[in-house]
Amino acid sequence: MRARNIARTHLVWHSEAVTDSATLRDRKKRATRAALQAAALGLALERGPENVRVEDIAEAAGVSARTYNNYFSSRDQAIVAAVAADRAAHVAAALVARPAEAGLGAAVIDAVVGLYTDPGDHPRALLMIAASPALRACYVDTVTTIEEPLAEAIIERCPGIAPLTAQVLAAAVGAAVRVALRQWLRATSAMPSSPGFVVPSGSLPDLVRAALTPLAPALDAAAATRPRPRSDPPAG
After folding, report:
1. CATH number assigned to the domain comprising residue 70
2. In a domain? residue 235
3. Which residue range is the domain that position 156 belongs to?
4. What is the pLDDT of residues 99-137, one digit of tens each?
5. Is there a contact between 87 and 203 (Cβ–Cβ < 8 Å)?
6. Does some domain include residue 156?
């Protein structure tokens, strides 16, 4: 019995140690990714993105080029990641925080538009991205990162929605935002010195809202769906 208790205690200790180790590894990975993103963006703004090498970014972040390749597949990906960081978590939190009486369509649109309403600390970076075809393509691709957390937030807000439906709706939202971003980036690339988000075809938040508005009826209809009660199996 004593041996069994010792074994159980060792198993618990080992499990906690493994969990702590995994948590520490995750923190280190997040810190390394953040350092690479910051270094990539800083160097791109200082020198111009075309004058930045992967080796420069790695050296500025204090890691090897090999380590860099474990996080990003290209220089451009690291540069835009600094601008897009935490976007997925923010949109999910914003959707869940919307007032309960707000319809799902309005709540999703407001949450997503909120991501693009304030350039935050990156107005120069956004204009730099708009002026570079390679950076524009990478930036548009970052929209896909909001889809999974958005689907989870939709389910949390409306538990009656089937997971597949939530995933389809989130993918549709992501596609609409990509359309808006491409239009804004094309317009802004012709005006690299233009301040802020305002361009002749409209502001980025307005474009995102216009692209998402046609999806509101589908979002509201999905939210109104109630799960079907399970039917009893046939007798005999």
Report:
1. 1.10.357.10
2. no
3. 86-224
4. 988 999 999 999 999 888 866 556 788 888 888 888 988
5. no
6. yes
